[in-house]
Design goal:
Layout (H helix, E strand, L loop, with lengths): L2 E6 L7 E6 L12 E4 L7 E7 L6 E8 L5 E7 L9 H6 L1 H15 L3 H22 L5 H6 L2 H8 L4 H18 L9 H22 L10
Antiparallel strand pairs: 1-2, 3-4, 4-5, 5-6
The structure holds zinc ion.
């Protein structure tokens, strides 16, 4: 579980650094919560309540204050129910990240039809977010296109990725139909969705490497 540190001003003690989860365990989106100390006893073991401003739900952490003034999480509740996306997607493919996360929650609730339609929509948004971020087309042009068109227009140089994106489109279509004609397992759609996401993760990581080619170290 990825974490970060934030200064915490306590009433009766010197300020110290508390450890926060990078992703809210309730909604799976970024986490910059309001935090309260729940256990009032001063000392090294502390219990905090955190409220996520995005989903407005609370999570708890138990932390130990170390000698160096930094806390360390030893327990958190609730446990995250979904596998969070790579941060690069939240930054460069925001609409995809939203839809995908919602579809993941639908899946955890066993709402497979909704999850399947969500994964299909998420991949359509991923290609559109990609086209915008990579400046392939203007926002107005991208907006008007349907899923079939975005695949043929923006993935035409990449035949293999184009194939998997079409597979997500077709498998997802079936879940949206009134008369569902195929009996392809949900896992097949999920697997194909994951493969597509991995391919785009590679593209985004290649565009935004940790160091620019002409950057001095
Ligand atoms: Zn949240």
């Amino acid at each position: 579980m990825e974490t970060y540190f934030k200064n915490y001003e306590s009433f009766d003690e010197k300020p110290y650094q508390i450890e926060l989860l990078k992703v809210c365990p309730n909604c799976g989106v970024g986490n910059n919560p309001d935090t309260w100390l729940v256990s009032h006893a001063t000392g090294e073991v502390k219990v905090f309540k955190h409220r996520c401003p995005l989903c407005n739900k609370d999570h708890l952490t138990t932390q130990i204050l170390k000698q160096n003034n930094f806390c360390e999480i030893v327990m958190s509740f609730p446990k995250p129910t979904i596998e969070p996306l790579d941060d690069i997607f939240f930054e460069h493919a925001p609409r995809f990240s939203e839809l995908y996360t919602q579809a993941q929650y639908a899946e955890t609730m066993k709402l497979y039809d909704i999850a399947a339609i969500g994964y299909r929509g998420a991949i359509e948004c991923l290609i559109k977010d990609y086209a915008l971020d990579f400046e392939i087309d203007s926002k107005d042009t991208i907006e008007k296109m349907n899923f079939d068109n975005v695949i043929s227009r923006y993935l035409k140089e990449d035949e293999l990725l184009s194939n998997t994106a079409h597979a997500v489109r077709l498998l997802g279509n079936d879940y949206a139909h009134w008369n569902k004609v195929n009996d392809i397992p949900f896992e097949t759609l999920k697997y194909t969705t994951e493969i597509t996401i991995k391919a785009f993760l590679m593209k985004f990581n290649q565009k935004y490497p940790p160091i620019k080619p002409n950057q001095k170290l």
